[in-house]
Amino acid sequence: MKKISTALLLSTACAFPAFADGHTADWPESFTVGTASQGGTYFAYGSGWANLVATELGLTGGGEVTGGPMQNMALVHTGEAQFGMTTMGPAAESLNGTNPIAPGLAMDNACAMFPMYQTPFSVTALSSSGIASISDIPAGARIGFGPAGSTSDTYFPRMMEELGVEFERRNGGWTDLGGQLQDGLLDVIAFAAGVPVPAVSQLEVQTDVNIIEFTAEEQAQILEAFPVSPFEIGADTYTTLEEDATSVSMWNFAIANCDLPASFVNAVVEVVMSDNERMVNIHRAARSTTPDNWDKNGVLMWHPGAAQWFIDNAGADIPADMIHGE
């Protein structure tokens, strides 16, 4: 299959000698990574790799608190943020013009950059509530689904409805929702975030919690109805867990504005993907931030600079019609 133009190959090949002395003339001097609310995995993971890239490439950059995947697609599409992070479900909705932030707008100027990790969907309640399973959740329960427009808020309410749960929907940042759960203002928090979720880890230290898994039947029902995959939350993820917990998950990808220079994006991908141990030190969810997971993107067009990195370093067979501008 056709790959990437000779001009791009040359521009990418020149990237690393150029940034050894600073950065190339067409690179931005600063950048922003759209993450999500504080207390969630997106913020910890995104701020971490933003700081790593800024340090390695000699630029000014960092993570920015946002509403999560839906808003990140909009920010990156318009160029208000150079980079961001999204899950495949919100990415597909954004491309189809059904992103609630800008209904009818096809956000096709946000390109895939690198695979991050799978986002498991999990439910947490205080042990004192007596809620130990999905079927235990009482009608009218106050459930926190994360920031409005986040992956949790987009899909978890639908999943709960699919499983027959009646609830009052609440939104907020993960840290705030964790505090509300502890204070008795919420009955349940439904998380869609890379594990361990910082807010859950913090709750475990302060009080006794139940991390609620799906039954095999519930998992099968959700797999049938939504664009998710089977997932097991490892027993070593939380001190509360005594064995792996059955869940479902959705893949996350870092995204880049499609108009960014190919050599710049190629260099960013090199920083993130070349040393997984360094990424895992930022967040344990990065154990899946590995080159072989390039094929988990079946939704977004690839940024040319990112595509070139995976072709060169992971043997990726990316069709030309999946590369922006080809």
Describe the protein in words:
The protein is α/β, with parallel strands linked by helices. It has 2 domains: 6-117 and 251-322, 3-Layer(aba) Sandwich (D-Maltodextrin-Binding Protein, domain 2), CATH 3.40.190.10; 119-249, D-Maltodextrin-Binding Protein, domain 2 (3-Layer(aba) Sandwich), CATH 3.40.190.10. 37% of the residues lie in helices and 21% in strands. It has helices at 6-13, 15-20, 41-57, 69-78, 88-95, 151-162, 174-182, 198-206, 216-225, 262-273, 276-282, 304-314; strands at 30-34, 60-64, 83-87, 110-126, 141-144, 167-170, 188-192, 209-212, 229-233, 245-257. Strands 1, 2, 3, 4, 5, 6, 7, 8, 9 and 10 form a 10-stranded mixed sheet that branches. Helix 3 (41-57) crosses helix 10 and helix 10 packs across helix 12 (304-314). The radius of gyration is 20 Å and the shape is globular. The protein starts with 5 loop residues before the first helix and ends in a 12-residue tail after the last helix.
Set down the secondary structure blueprint.
Elements: H1 6-13, H2 15-20, E1 30-34, H3 41-57, E2 60-64, H4 69-78, E3 83-87, H5 88-95, E4 110-126, E5 141-144, H6 151-162, E6 167-170, H7 174-182, E7 188-192, H8 198-206, E8 209-212, H9 216-225, E9 229-233, E10 245-257, H10 262-273, H11 276-282, H12 304-314
Parallel strand pairs: 1-2, 1-3, 5-6, 5-7
Antiparallel strand pairs: 3-10, 4-7, 4-8, 4-10, 9-10
Helix pairs in contact: 1-10, 3-10, 7-8, 10-12
- Write down how many β-strands occur, each being a DSSP E stretch of 2 or more residues: 10
CATH class of the largest domain: Alpha Beta
For the biggest sheet, the summary is: 10 strands, mixed
* The CATH architecture of the largest domain: 3-Layer(aba) Sandwich
Q: Estimate the mean pLDDT confidence.
A: 91
Topology as a string of helices (H) and strands (E): HHEHEHEHEEHEHEHEHEEHHH
Q: What general outline do the C-alpha atoms trace?
A: globular
Provide the CATH topology of the largest domain: D-Maltodextrin-Binding Protein, domain 2
Which percent range fits the helix content? 25-40%
Contiguous runs where pLDDT drops below 50 for at least 5 residues? 1-22
Q: What's the number of structural domains?
A: 2
The structure class reads alpha/beta
Figure out the total of helices: 12
Note the gap between the termini: 12 Å
* Rg calculated over all Cα atoms: 20 Å
Strand content: 15-25%
**Superfamily (CATH H level) name of the largest domain:** Periplasmic binding protein-like II
